[in-house]
Amino acid sequence: MDELMNILNGIDDSIDWENEKALIDQRLLDSFGVITLVSELEDQFSVEIDAAQMIPDNFNSAEAIYEMIQRLREK
Amino acid sequence: MAYHTIVYLFLFLPLVLTAYQIAPRKLRRAVLVGAGYGFFWLISRKLVVFLIGTTLFTHYIGLCLTWLKQKCRMETDSCAPEGKSGIRKKYKKKEKLVLACGIILLLTVLAYLKYYNFFAHNANQLLEAVSVPLAFPAKRLVLPIGISFYTLQAIGYMADVYWEKVQTENHPGKLALFLGFFPQIMEGPISMYSQTAEALWRCDSLKGENLSRGCVRIIWGLFKKMIVADRLYLLVKAVFDHYEQYSGIVIAAAAISYTVQLYMEFSGSMDIIIGSGRMFGVVLPENFRQPFVSRNAAEFWRRWHITLGVWFKTYIFYPMSASALVKKWNRFGKKHFGKYITKLGISAICLYPVWLCNGLWHGPRWSYLFYGMYYFVILLFGIAAEPVKNGLLQRCGIKESAWYWKRLQILKTWVIIFVGELFFRAEGLSIGLKMFKSMFQNVSLHCLWDGTFLNFGLDKGDYLVIICGCLTAAVVGGIKERNLLGDGGLAKLKTPVRWSIYYALIFAVIIFGAYGVGYQQVDLIYAGF
To answer: How far is CA A16 from CA A61, B232, B356, B477, in A?
Structure first.
């Protein structure tokens, strides 16, 4: 989780990543933020994030992002 | 048989509703599928085979993808951990191939019927220019109604099965209902399988609440279409058909009028369609959400023809974003050019195919392609200029949330929209360019009161009705935007107030609706796409 928080703060340190639960729905994280995040996550966690994972539910909170990474790692 | 016609509203829809309700639950699905194909046949006759063919083909592609996924699961379950990744890769390749075949075939049919003559015409001109004695013959091709809509839904379904977002059914009826639900055939909304297929398949009994809410939505749609859009059609047609006779304010007014006409007509049709669906207990996705309060072009496209935008975002933008090309560029760009250029590059790579397809989807015309590229450039410029804009705002002490800044942004977006729609409506790109230029010639406000605008088949009363209709729509839009009535909508109001609104709407349509002698039946614009 710490690794993830470092990446998220690197993208935008003005967002309260720990508590925010609607990053996509409230447009705090836009499409391009998601793209940047995806490539950082792939590099850091050695997972492959394809278009199927690009749904708001997977990116609305740091927790959801973390769960997605865990899911993809198990695959 | 368009959705605003008497035949649909007073004959087809009530007949289907009655047959649906009296049929046993198991037969209701057949009633809906039959109604869909019957509706299609009434407009496109034997071309209904395209819809049936697309449905069966898509169904079997879905089954094939599911079969491959099951086989992959079985093989990985029974193999050693180190071999699992290889098996998954092998099957992923096969699935990709099946999906690609499905998409290519559907797109080939659409491209051939919709774009062949456009391609042939332009290719012939090019061949002639380089003196090659070769020519593509023009063909008489008839487009099945709604092909652009149901093809996108079918491709979306195949991709969703591939991504395991939805599960296939062995029975093709569910897909047939999803692709051939009669209110959606002509103009969308382009729904995803996960949004409507389940409710359609469930075939719930009709409910009083659904029927009344559906009816009100239909009447509201008729209000927009018949009171405002069909009146503005006269002005728009008069100016766009004889554009060479006009300049300055008249051309600008025609561009604004066309934008309002298109919105009132398309969103009005959507109200009728969504209302029809609601009567059967099916909640269709919304296609419009107060687009004229958008602060920039990107927001406008999140509020205008929403389902098309969501489709492009889901099935083109995100796959492009997750592509190897974008990932490579992201890494390379950050290393060599910094965040700003990298983001701009990603934006260009991902947005270009979206807007190229958006332009092409509307039809085989250079002006539609220009329309797509127009928004591509504006959106890209918006992203490029964002740091400069933010810096300027900070320096001038203007807050993003300041009311005057919001109004200015909305005004700027209106100009972008009106210019875009001018090119969209013009009969060709060169005419669009001529009209755009002439908008800046002989600019004089005199034409506003010298009677020029009374020569377009509209009198002062018509203009008053249009203004009142627009104001009513603006008030309703404001209530929706602030969610003042909540999810319950009008049902929240007291009975006398609610019924006063119902009667006011009905009488407004009867008294002020543009129909009967002196008015020409106006075809639905988006049914042509």
So the answer is: 10, 49, 37, 33
Q: Residue A38's pLDDT band (boundaries 50, 70, 90)?
A: confident
Q: What is the mean pLDDT of residues B13-29?
A: 93
B337 touches chain A (CB under 8 A): no
Residues of chain A with C-beta less than 8 angstroms from the C-beta of B313: 31
> What would the pLDDT profile of B324-348 be if each residue is shown by its tens digit?
888 888 888 888 988 889 889 988 9
Nearest C-alpha of chain B: how many angstroms from A1?
23
C-alpha closest to that of B259 among B110, B461, B423 = B423
Give the CA angle between residues B182, B183, B184 to the nearest 5°: 90
In which domain, by residue range, is A70 found? Answer: 2-74
Q: Residue B179: what pLDDT?
A: 96
Q: Which residues contact B447 (CB under 8 A, 6 or more apart)?
A: B248, B249, B250, B453
Cis peptide before B81 (omega within 30 of 0): no
pLDDT score, position B512: 85
B234-288 confidence digits (pLDDT tens):
999 999 999 999 888 999 999 999 999 999 999 999 999 999 999 999 999 999 9
Structure tokens at B473: 């729509």
Gap between the terminal Cα atoms of chain A: 19
| Residue B258 confidence (pLDDT) | 95
The reply to whether residue B350 touches residue A49, judged by beta carbons under 8 angstroms, is no
Q: At what angle do helices B366-396 and B429-438 cross, to 10 degrees?
A: 40
Subunit contact B321:A50, Cβ cutoff 8 A: no
Instruction: Compute the mean pLDDT over every residue in chain B, rounded to the nearest whole number.
Output: 91
Beta-carbon contacts of residue B327 (< 8 Å; ≥ 6 apart): A38, A39, A42
Quote the minimal CA–CA distance from A31 to chain B in Å.
8
Backbone torsions φ then ψ of B397, nearest 5 degrees: 70, 30
Give how far Cα B294 sits from Cα of B408, B415, B486, Å.
11, 12, 21
Distance CA B432, CA B441 (A): 15
Per-residue pLDDT, B77: 84
The pLDDT of residue B12 is above 60:
yes
The dihedral formed by the CA atoms of B18, B21, B22 and B26, expressed in degrees to the nearest 10: 130
Predicted-complex ipTM score? 0.82
Chain B residue numbers with beta carbons less than 8 Å from the beta carbon of A52 are: 162-165
**CATH assignment at residue A66:** 1.10.1200.10
Write down the pLDDT at residue B437: 94
Q: Which residue of B has its CA nearest to A34?
A: B321
> How much of chain B exceeds pLDDT 70, in percent?
97
Whether B434 and B245 have beta carbons less than 8 Å apart is answered as: no
Q: What is the pLDDT of residue B521?
A: 63
Mutate one of A39, A40, A75 to test the B interface: name it (highest B CB count within 10 A).
A39
- For residue B318, list chain A residues with Cβ-Cβ distance below 8 A: 51, 54
Is pLDDT at B528 greater than 80 in this prediction? no
Flag whether residue B321 sits within 8 Å of chain A, measured between CB atoms. Answer: yes
Which token pair is B331? 């890494």
CA distance B76 to chain A (A): 11
Q: Give how many domains chain A has, as a whole number.
A: 1
Q: Which helix (H) or strand (E) holds B335?
A: helix B324-336
